[in-house]
Amino acid sequence: MIRSKHLSAAAAPLLLLLWPAAQVAPGDQLIGKAPVEYFSQDIPLISGGQLSAEDLKGKILVIDVWGTWCGPCRRVIPHLIDLQNRFGSRGVMVIGISAEQGDSEEEAAKKVLRFASEVGINYKLGIFDADLYQKIRSLMRFEGDEFTVPSTFVVDRDGAVIARYPGYFYGQEKEIARLLEQKLGITDSRDVQRRPAGGDGPGSQR
């Protein structure tokens, strides 16, 4: 386990548990039998400002909790970039929530933004506050002080959480893409064109 230093005092302490891909099995993440849970939360942006719950209404969200130091997180990022390129123009929004460690929030934010520029992240980058941390912990059904990184979940246009992924498994990105196509009514994946995300960079404000 790794203790994050990059949280507000209200959200700390946070224990980050890295689950290897082998511990996450395809198909275990889709929610069908469990009661429907909803995500409606303001998300602070890493460079300042926020995405409000109102901003997110009516969008399909792919939200990923990650850190630059996390190997599985780095494997997920190219797929998230691709999802934003493929589906961003159709009302899908990918959001990365940083669990970055650092001696200060400013230091950690600089590290994240530098890394995002290096790897070409084209989606919004948020940061934990106490409320967001507790909400995601609850949605992901983590117990005690454990928090798996990466953690990814998908929210439909009504705000319902329709899939959650504690950790990463090979092929996870394909499962998410199929789910998005299903929610968007896309019957032929060739209909989805990959296009640049435009000037809406990772740390930009709305």
List the SSEs and their pairings.
Blueprint: E1 2-3, E2 15-17, E3 43-44, E4 50-51, H1 53-56, E5 60-66, H2 71-87, E6 92-98, H3 105-119, E7 124-127, H4 130-140, E8 146-148, E9 151-155, E10 161-166, H5 172-184
Parallel strand pairs: 2-8, 5-6, 6-7
Antiparallel strand pairs: 1-2, 3-4, 5-9, 9-10
Provide a compact summary of the structure.
With 206 residues, this protein is α/β, with parallel strands linked by helices. Helix content is 29%, strand content 20%.
Keywords, separated by commas or semicolons:
206 residues, globular, five-stranded mixed beta sheet, alpha/beta, 5 helices
Care to describe what's here?
The chain has 206 residues and is an alpha/beta fold. It has helices at 53-56, 71-87, 105-119, 130-140, 172-184, and strands at residues 2-3, 15-17, 43-44, 50-51, 60-66, 92-98, 124-127, 146-148, 151-155, 161-166. The strands form three sheets. A five-stranded mixed β-sheet has the order 7-6-5-9-10, covered by helices on one side. The chain has a three-stranded mixed β-sheet with strand order 1-2-8, with no helix packed on it. A two-stranded antiparallel sheet has the order 3-4. Helix 2 (71-87) links the parallel strand 5 (60-66) and strand 6. It is globular, with a radius of gyration of 16 Å. It starts with a strand and ends in a 22-residue tail after the last helix.
